[in-house]
C-alpha cells in the first residue's frame, strides 16, 4: 500500500511516499480502515521533525486524522458496532496512507450528509471547540464571543458552534480574505483584523463598550484580547499557533475579574472518558441536522502532495481544514455495500 513511512526525523519537505509499504496489522481492540481522505494538522509538521510530544518508535506512518470505510477484511472486535463497508471518521497514527489500524473506540460513524473530505478533519477540532465553549466556558445564548484565528481549523468550528449556541460572534483573523471566510462559512456576526493596531477598540465598539464575555484563543494572544474582555469574562486557552507559549501579566486578570481556562481535549481520554460520548452525541446531532458544517480548504491535496499541503499550513495560507484526498468516493457503490 501507499504510505509516508518515517524512519528518521526529517524536514517535511523531504517526505517520500512509498508505494510498497507494509499493510497495518490490527491489535485486539482495533479495526482496519480504508482511508479515503486524511486531514493535515500543524502537529504533523512538528512530529516528522521529532519536535512534537508524541514521538512514535521508528518506523511509523505520518498523519493522525482520517475518514474512510471499515475495510472488507477488517477484524471486528467484540463490542464494536461497525461492519465492513461502514463510513467512519476518526483518529490514529498513520493516516497518510491507504489503510490504518485504529482503536474502534476512536472511530465515529460519518453522517450520510457529509463527504469523506468533510469528515476527515472532524475528530480533533470540533470536540475541542465544543468542549471549550460548552463544557468549560458555559457559553449562554446572547453572550458575545471573540474567536481568534477564526478562519483556522479549530477557529471556524468555534465560530459555527458559538452561532449554533445563540451567541454573538466576533471573528478575528489576519487578512480580509480570511475574515470573508469567517462570514461566508462560519456565519460570524462581525469581523475584525487583529493585525491592525488598536483592533481591540473595534471589539469594544461592537459590544457597546462592555467587552466580550468569552475569548477563544488558539494563537497565544490572550493578553491582547484581555484589553477587550468584559468584567468577569472567560478566556479560553486552546493553543499557541503563533509558536511561543504565551505568558500573561496577571494584573490584567485581576483588574477585570477574568477567568482564564485551558481546554486540552486529548486529555479527556484518560481523565474524563465519560464526557467523550456526550460531546460526540451533541456534535453528531448538530452535523446531521446541518446546523454546523465542516469547512474544507479550497485546494484539496492528493496523497503525493502532503509536503506541499503541510507547507501551505505552515505559511498560514490555508483556512478551514486542509485535506488530502487519498481516493475518490463512489457514493452509488457505497450505497450498495
Ligand atoms: N487544545 C486542544 O485540545 C487543541 C486541539 C486542536 C488544536 N489545538 C491547537 O490549536 C492551534 C490551532 O490549530 P488549527 O488546527 O486551528 O490550526 P490552523 O488551521 O493551522 O490555524 C492556525 C491559525 O493561527 C493563526 N496564526 C497566527 N500566528 C501564526 C503563526 N505564526 N503560524 C501559523 N499560524 C498562525 C493563523 O490565522 P491568521 O492568519 O488569521 O492569524 C492560522 O490560520 C494549534 O496550536 C493546535 O495545536 C489545540
TrEMBL record:
It comes from the Eukaryota. This is NAD(P)-binding protein.
Amino acid at each position: 500500500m501507499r504510505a509516508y513511512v518515517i524512519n528518521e526525523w526529517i524536514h517535511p519537505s523531504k517526505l517520500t511516499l512509498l508505494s510498497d509499504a507494509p499493510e497495518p496489522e490490527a491489535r485486539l481492540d482495533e479495526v482496519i480502515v480504508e482511508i479515503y481522505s486524511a486531514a493535515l494538522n500543524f502537529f504533523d509538521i512538528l512530529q516528522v521533525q521529532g519536535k512534537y510530544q508524541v514521538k512514535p518508535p521508528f518506523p511509523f506512518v505520518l498523519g493522525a486524522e482520517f475518514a474512510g470505510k471499515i475495510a472488507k477484511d477488517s477484524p471486528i472486535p467484540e463490542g464494536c458496532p461497525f461492519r465492513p463497508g461502514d463510513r467512519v471518521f476518526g483518529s490514529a497514527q498513520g493516516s497518510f496512507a491507504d489503510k490504518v489500524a485504529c482503536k474502534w473506540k476512536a472511530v465515529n460513524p460519518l453522517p450520510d450528509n457529509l463527504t469523506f473530505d468533510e469528515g476527515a478533519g472532524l475528530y480533533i477540532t470540533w470536540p475541542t471547540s465544543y468542549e471549550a465553549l460548552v463544557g468549560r466556558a458555559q457559553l449562554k445564548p446572547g453572550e458575545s464571543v471573540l474567536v481568534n484565528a477564526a478562519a483556522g481549523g479549530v477557529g471556524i468550528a468555534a465560530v459555527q458552534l458559538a452561532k449554533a449556541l445563540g451567541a454573538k460572534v466576533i471573528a478575528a483573523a489576519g487578512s480580509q480574505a480570511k475574515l470573508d471566510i469567517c462570514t461566508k462559512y462560519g456565519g460570524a456576526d462581525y469581523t475584525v483584523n487583529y493585525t491592525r493596531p488598536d483592533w481591540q477598540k473595534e471589539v469594544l465598539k461592537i459590544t457597546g463598550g462592555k467587552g466580550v464575555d468569552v475569548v477563544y484563543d488558539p494563537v497565544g494572544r490572550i493578553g491582547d484580547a484581555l484589553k477587550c474582555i468584559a468584567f468577569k469574562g472567560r478566556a479560553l486557552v486552546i493553543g499557541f499557533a503563533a509558536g511561543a507559549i504565551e505568558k500573561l501579566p496577571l494584573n490584567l486578570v485581576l483588574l477585570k475579574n477574568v477567568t482564564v481556562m485551558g481546554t486540552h481535549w486529548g486529555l479527556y481520554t484518560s481523565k474524563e472518558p465519560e464526557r467523550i460520548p456526550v460531546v460526540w452525541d451533541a456534535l453528531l446531532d448538530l452535523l446531521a441536522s446541518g446546523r454546523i458544517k465542516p469547512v474544507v480548504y479550497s485546494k484539496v491535496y492528493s496523497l503525493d502532495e502532503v509536503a506541499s499541503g503541510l507547507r501551505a499550513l505552515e505559511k498560514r495560507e490555508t483556512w478551514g481544514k486542509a485535506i488530502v484526498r487519498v481516493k475518490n468516493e463512489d457514493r452509488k457503490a457505497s450505497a450498495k455495500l
